[in-house]
Structures are given as structure tokens and as C-alpha cells.
Amino acid sequence: MLWSLITLLATVAATLAIGWTVDQALQRVAARHPDAPVWAQLRRCRVPLQLTVVAALLLATHPLTRIFHLTDDEGAHHLVLLLLLASLGWLTVRVVAAVLEGLLGRYETVSEDPARIQRVRTQIGMLRRVVSAVIAVVTVAVMLLTFSAMRTIGASLLASAGIIGIVAGIAAQSTLGNFFAGLQIAFGDTVRIDDTVVVEGQQGTVEEITLSYLVIRLWDSRRLVVPVSYFVNRPFENWTRRDPGLLAAVLLHLDHTTPVDELRTELHAHLERHPLWDGTDWALNVTDTTPSTIVVRATMTARNPDDAAQLRFDVREHLVAHLRDHHPTALPRVRTGDS
């Protein structure tokens, strides 16, 4: 009894010592290599590592059986084995996630192309979810195989595996469709995290991509949850797929007496002072006429859709205020009789 208690205390002490030693080693390596974020990410594996170590030591020494006078030694051994398998699966998921996050962090430090960074972030996020799901399934399957009853009925289940597979495939058709659609989105580069998209008339930014759905953050901070199969089966607008820059346009209905040249000069001067204009392109043209008005379109470029929207609001307000203050007759009027 005393020896078993000493063995248990030594097991706990060894587990804590191993976890602390590994964490300190990773911390020092991360300090020496700040450009490699994978070492800092691996520090998140401390808890599953300690569970794995303590389960392995308990499995090898059997102190619990003697301390608690357990008559069913095989049952206690089985419980510890299940703990070891579960902690190994958890540790593997954490290690894979840390490596992938480290690779993404490393890529973000060496790449200057925002579009490529968004694509890689989306692909790595999807890959992490797929690998985690596979590891979880394999871990549960191995844990089930440790039960003798599962091994006994395994042969009979194989005989009906074909029928069960067909039934499961029909039942999970929508889920599997979303799963493969998610992979197609991630690696087909049709939509990425932080892309600005228009879905069913709603404009928003892609906030999260999972194996079954996308979360789109709308302009008023609402979240639109859309199945990933939507982006494979239906058309949608992606404003930032190749270049986050965007052309903003402002339409004004003005009187025929509007001094277009002066308005064009005023637009250019305002854009030169505006912090949201990226300096790439701008224009002001008369695009249409009606019996009572002309249609003036002002266009300007911005770095991203949010800047483009705000720039469009500011330009419209400034041009209307300029005409109101300096050329009030240029604003459209309702003509009656011979006036």
C-alpha cells in the first residue's frame, strides 16, 4: 500500500516535471527564434501532453489498483487505456493546429500580398478542421476497438456494411455535400476570409469558414450564416477576390446649366485632400441626359470596400454642398410654365 502511494505521487511529480520542462524548453526556443511562431504555438500542448504522460505511467505501474483495492484490475487498466488514447488524440490535434498556425504566421511575415495571405489563411483553417475531424474519428474508432464486444460484433457488421453505407450516404447527403463544398471553396480560391461578398442582396465580409457554413459580417454587425454549398451552386459577387481595391461611383442628377468642368476640378481637389482616396484613378463624366436633368457620374478608387463606401458618401455630400453654395441653379428644379 505504501509503495503504491509513493508510486502514485512519483507519477504525478514526474508528470508535472515533464510538462514544466517541455514548456520551459519551448519558451526558450521561441525566444531564440521569434520569427518562427510554431514554438510559441506548441506551448498550448502542455495539458494534453501531461495527460498522456500520466496515463502512460499509470498504465505501466498500476498504482490505483493496489491503493483502492480494486478487484477488477482489467477494468481499471481499460479505463486508463481509454484515457491514454483520448489524450493522445487531443495532443495530436493540438500539435497539428500549432504547426499549421505557425506556418500561417511565418507566411504572413514573408508575404506582402494581402490576397495571397487571405487565401492561405482560408486553406490552412479548412485543413486544420479536416485533420482534426479525421483524428477525432480515428481516436474514437480505436477506443471502441478496445472493447471486446465491439471486436466480436465487428465481423457481423462487415457483412451489412454495404447497406449501412448506402443508407448513411443518403441520410448524410446534405452534410457530405457541404463538406466537399467547403474543401472546394478553400482550395478553389472562390471565397476567402476577409473577402467582401454580396449574397442575396446583402453585402458583408466573410468572417469564418467552416466545413458546413460561412459566417458573413454585415455592415450593421449582424451575422449572416450561409451553407457552403450556396457558394458552389449559386452565383454571388466577390468584390475582393483578386484585388482588395475598389472603384466607387457617385451619381448626381443636375440641371443642364451645371458647370461640369468646374465640378470636375472641385472633385479632383477634394480627392487630393481626402485620406481614403488611394490616388490610383478618378473621373467625372456626364453619362446621360433627360429633358430636365443631366446625369453626372463621379468615380474614384479606394483601398478596400469599406473605404470605398465612406469615400462615396463624402464625395456625394461635398459635391452637393459645393453646388448649393456656389451654383444653386445647377441643382435640379421642377420647371412650371415658361420658367
Q: Termini distance?
A: 111 Å
Major sheet description: 5 strands, antiparallel
Per DSSP, what share of the residues sits in E-state strands of 2 or more residues?
15-25%
Kindly state the percentage of residues in helix: 55-70%
Count of spatially separate domains: 3
Chain-averaged pLDDT = 76
Enumerate the strands of the largest sheet in spatial order, edge to edge or round the barrel: 4-3-2-1-5
Secondary-structure-based class equals alpha+beta
SS element count, helices: 12
The total count of strands amounts to 8
Shape: elongated
Low-confidence stretches: 157-161
* CA-based gyration radius: 32 Å
Brief descriptors of the model:
alpha+beta, 339 residues, SH3 type barrels, single chain, five-stranded antiparallel β-sheet
Helices and strands in order, then pairings?
Elements: H1 2-32, H2 38-42, H3 46-61, H4 63-67, H5 73-110, H6 114-145, H7 148-159, H8 161-171, H9 173-188, E1 196-199, E2 202-209, E3 213-218, E4 223-227, H10 230-233, E5 237-238, E6 246-254, H11 260-273, E7 277-289, E8 294-302, H12 305-326
Antiparallel strand pairs: 1-2, 1-5, 2-3, 3-4, 6-8, 7-8
Helix pairs in contact: 1-3, 3-5, 5-6, 6-9, 11-12
Explain what you see.
With 339 residues, the chain is of the alpha+beta class. The chain has three domains: 2-175; 181-238, SH3 type barrels (Roll); 246-330, Alpha-Beta Plaits (2-Layer Sandwich), CATH 3.30.70. Helix content is 61%, strand content 17%. The chain has twelve helices and eight strands. The chain has helices at 2-32, 38-42, 46-61, 63-67, 73-110, 114-145, 148-159, 161-171, 173-188, 230-233, 260-273, 305-326; strands at 196-199, 202-209, 213-218, 223-227, 237-238, 246-254, 277-289, 294-302. The protein has a five-stranded antiparallel beta sheet with strand order 4-3-2-1-5. A three-stranded antiparallel beta sheet has the order 6-8-7, covered by helices on one side. The radius of gyration is 32 Å and the shape is elongated. It starts with a helix and ends in a 13-residue tail after the last helix.
